[in-house]
Write a structure and sequence with these properties.
Elements: E1 10-13, E2 15-18, E3 21-29, H1 46-75, H2 77-91, H3 93-106, H4 110-126, H5 131-151, E4 166-170, H6 175-179, E5 186-191, H7 199-206, E6 211-213, H8 218-221, E7 227-231, E8 236-239, H9 243-264, E9 280-285, H10 291-296, E10 302-306, H11 308-314, H12 320-334, E11 338-342, H13 353-358, H14 371-376, H15 378-391, E12 396-401, H16 407-426, E13 436-441, H17 444-448, H18 450-453, E14 459-462, H19 464-472, H20 490-505, E15 510-512, H21 523-529, E16 533-536, H22 541-548, H23 553-564, H24 569-584
Parallel strand pairs: 3-4, 4-5, 5-6, 9-10, 9-16, 10-11, 11-12, 12-13, 13-14, 14-15, 15-16
Antiparallel strand pairs: 1-8, 2-6, 3-7, 7-8
Helix pairs in contact: 1-2, 1-5, 2-5, 3-4, 4-5, 12-15, 15-16, 21-23, 23-24
The structure holds phosphoenolpyruvate and magnesium ion.
Length: about 600
């Protein structure tokens, strides 16, 4: 018999998001749709099916009641009442009786019948005139998903159990999907939407999982089990790669390994230019576990500990003790080097379930996010501040507030910090009374009031991911406008220079902790502007250090002068790329300046 025709190679082009090459089997992750099986059941099985439904309802009721108590304790009774509406859906006898009736008539399994009935209810409510009743459709959808998860014996669609090593293909990934990801089974990630600075992608980079985003319709074109090769340098997803392609990539992978070991030779060496100008290289982490990588790659400390990772992994608000343990672990692992712990930055693209219930926003990045949420929930904020302060007794801790937009917020946050200190003193709990406090500068209004903010804190950290999106009015997670998100825009470079100059005028140091801080193309520019530290995902540290050790400060200053004269970001990028290629030589990375 003739061999089946070989499948044709198909190359999908996206945006490179995390470097590396991976080859394996595709797992198409459709987190938005639950796969509910349909099968016939015998009449004798029907009582057991009804039992299954009641069991799932009881589990869902307990889950929502627990969430309700948590939301009431932390956010207050009005917010918790939103969950009462969800509990009421579960008490709706009509929904339950109709499901049982459907099963008796159709002889299909109960999960399938429940989904069909819930869908009919949702559609009916969606069509209602009354806005209040229309909103109930969302409640029914949410609750029925929970019930179905229990019926199907799944906690939630998750990347934690893939059953083998897979290349994950998804429409988009949320930070909570990525937080649950098992590094050993996820070979690589490819998404239809997303951008380099979405938090899920930032996490993929720090887990060193190769990723390509913005593929548009990969989930439609691929099937589970397809043979795929992902190239995170060029932003390609190759379906059914031919022998020739695999052979070529075999060489690329070998070459990348050789380059990595040549670059990683700088790990124990100083972070200084050829003429001795120094800059601190720090790590961004979102889990105390990542301190291992930070140390491995030679970080001089943690420049950004994104604490919301802890909240997202728990999918709730962890209590003071749980937070204290996590922060202490990070601080002890890095001692005597400093750990900059950023207070909670939930909102935007980072959510936990109980927050999702309370805030549905049209423009979440401009909404109830980060310090805005914390200042309106002082109990939650002080609880976190106490946990951070207690960790400061175990090493060098610095506290940093996200999304400060002006002086009043900084003053208010500092007041709550003083209250938290008072509470610890009253309980005889140890902390460092001189713990340093810093402000992130990531909103244009903070950049323009940097002189005022500098009088009330002892360091700045520039969050370029947000600063760029707010300066250029380009949503950082919207792939439709990703081409407009431009770190080389003159407004961005002028803002960064202004912040650094102002901070130094007031004798406080500045770190850069957005993705730009870890992009080697921008390293000479930021160093010449006077940045004191660069903070980045741990795996990015050796490349940046290698480059720093291969140029002189005066060369970087000349580059900066030329760049600041440019009006077109494309010309700036060309200048930066040339400088990078000249100084990295044969070790230049394929995805930098591509
Ligand atoms: C930033 O905005 O650059 C930053 C570091 O914070 P995040 O990416 O967590 O918003
Ligand atoms: Mg930010």
């Amino acid at each position: 018999m003739a061999d089946p025709a070989p499948k044709l190679e198909l190359v999908l082009k996206g945006v490179p998001a995390s470097p590396g090459v991976a080859h394996g089997t595709a797992f198409v992750f459709l987190q938005k749709e639950l796969e509910v099986p349909v099968y016939q059941i015998e009449k004798s099985q029907q009582p057991a099916e009804v039992q299954r439904l009641h069991h799932a309802l009881t589990q869902t009721r307990a889950q929502i009641a627990k969430l309700r108590a948590e939301v009431a304790g932390r956010l207050g009774e009005p917010e918790a009442q939103i969950l009462d509406a969800h509990l009421m859906v579960l008490e709706d006898n009509a929904l339950i009786e109709e499901t049982i009736h459907e099963m008796e008539n159709s002889s299909y399994n109960i999960d399938y019948c429940f989904q069909a009935v819930a869908q009919r209810y949702t559609d009916a409510f969606n069509k209602m005139e009354d806005e209040y009743l229309r909103e109930r459709a969302a409640d029914i959808r949410d609750v029925s998903r929970r019930v179905l998860h229990h019926l199907l014996g799944q906690a939630t669609a998750s990347l934690a159990r893939l059953g083998g090593q897979r290349v994950v293909i998804a429409q988009d990934l949320s930070p909570s999907d990525t937080a649950g990801l098992d590094r050993h089974s996820v070979l690589a990630i490819a998404t239809d939407t997303g951008s380099r600075t979405s938090h899920a992608v930032i996490m993929a980079r720090s887990l060193q999982v190769p990723a390509v985003v913005g593929l548009h319709n990969a989930t439609e074109r691929l099937e589970n089990g397809d043979d795929v090769l992902l190239d995170g340098y060029e932003g390609l997803l190759i379906v059914n790669p031919t022998e020739k392609t695999l052979f070529r990539y075999g060489h690329i992978e070998k070459r990348q390994r050789d380059i990595r070991s040549a670059i990683e030779a700088v790990i124990p060496l100083a972070s200084e230019t050829r003429d001795g100008a120094r800059i601190g290289l720090m790590a961004n982490i979102s889990d105390p576990e990542e301190t291992k990588e930070a140390k491995h790659f030679g970080a001089a400390g943690v420049g950004l500990y994104r604490t919301e990772g802890l909240f997202i992994r728990h999918d709730r608000f962890p209590n003071e003790e749980e937070q204290y343990e996590a922060y202490k672990n990070a601080v002890e692992a890095l001692r005597p080097n400093p750990v900059v712990i950023r207070t909670l930055d939930l909102g935007g693209d980072k959510h936990i379930t109980s927050l999702q219930f309370t805030h549905k926003e049209d423009n979440p990045f401009m909404g109830f996010r980060a310090i805005r949420f914390c200042l309106e929930h002082p109990n939650i904020f002080r609880e976190q501040l106490r946990a951070i302060l207690r960790a400061s007794a175990h090493g060098t801790v610095k506290i940093m507030y996200p999304m400060i937009s002006g002086l009043q917020e900084l003053i208010q946050a500092n007041l709550l910090l003083e209250q938290a200190k008072g509470e610890l003193r009253a309980n005889n709990q140890a902390f460092d009374p001189n713990v340093a406090v810093g402000s992130m500068i990531e909103i244009p209004s903070a950049a323009w009031t940097a002189d005022q903010l500098a009088l009330h804190c002892s360091f700045f950290s520039i969050g370029t991911n947000d600063l760029i999106q707010y300066l250029l009015a380009v949503d950082r997670v919207n792939d439709r406008v990703a081409h407009l998100y431009d770190p080389a825009h003159p407004a961005v470079l002028r803002a960064i220079q202004h912040i650094i100059t102002t901070a130094h005028h007031h004798k406080i140091p500045v770190s850069i902790c957005g993705e730009m801080g870890g992009d080697p193309m921008f390293t000479p520019l930021l160093l010449a502007m006077g940045a004191d530290d660069l903070s980045m995902s741990p795996a990015g540290l050796p490349d940046v250090k290698y480059l720093i050790r291969n140029f002189r400060l005066d060369e970087a200053q000349a580059l900066l002068a030329k760049v600041m004269e440019q009006t077109d970001p494309k010309n700036t990028l060309a200048l930066l790329r040339r400088f990078y290629l000249e100084h990295m030589g044969d070790l230049a990375r394929a995805d930098v300046g591509a």
